[in-house]
Amino acid sequence: MRDSTKQREVESCSTRSHLRWRLCWESELELDEHVELAAFFRKIYGQTGSFNAKSFEGSQSWGGARPELRAVGYDSMGVAAHIGLLRRFIRIGTVDLLVGELGLRGVRPDLEGLWMAHSVRVMYPVLQELKVPFAFGAVRPALQHHVARFSRNALATIMSGIRVRSTLPCARLDKPPTRTEDVVLIVLPIAQPMSEWPAGTIIDRNGPEL
């Protein structure tokens, strides 16, 4: 699977952009590419507050957990969009479940309407090759309208009323070691049907958010 995914490029067209998507494993990225991605995330995440951009100082192109696979969208202006993938076990109730977590999402403001649909569709064939039972991503409830289209085309199931607990990337004496957030969950059945997704409203990542 690694050989077939390495340096794979996918053309993605829309009425507003022509993106060239590059799929690459984390170990394939060069230092200058990390620097370029870090600058992209500082700009994107900094829109919601300077604190959110601090994780991406210098050449650090990840904020919490580090992805193992990335889809990076490019256009004539450089990096335009990004989504990361990390295989991990999460716990729902008493069930440990292998998933492909989709996170570290970002898109330039001029392409805001494209970010979720295009990046997930690019990553979907990779998830099928990896044969993970499910893929999932979490967004703030305020962004629920951005993911509604997935429930319309049956690509994913959207769940509200879910809480996700994560560990903080860095332990600090003035903060608790974990954070629990209300989220809207996006679940994509890959190697198992949606009926096999465990029941429960609290998900424990047992690690930092991607």
TrEMBL record:
Keywords: Acyltransferase, Cytoplasm, Nodulation, Transferase. Coiled coil: none annotated. Its main location: cytoplasm. Signal peptide: none annotated. InterPro entries: NodA, Nodulation_prot_NodA_CS. It is found in: Cytoplasm. PROSITE patterns: NODA. It holds the Pfam family NodA. NCBIfam families: nodulat_NodA, PRK00756.1. Belongs to the NodA family. This is Nodulation protein A. The lineage of its organism: Bacteria, Pseudomonadati, Pseudomonadota, Alphaproteobacteria, Hyphomicrobiales.
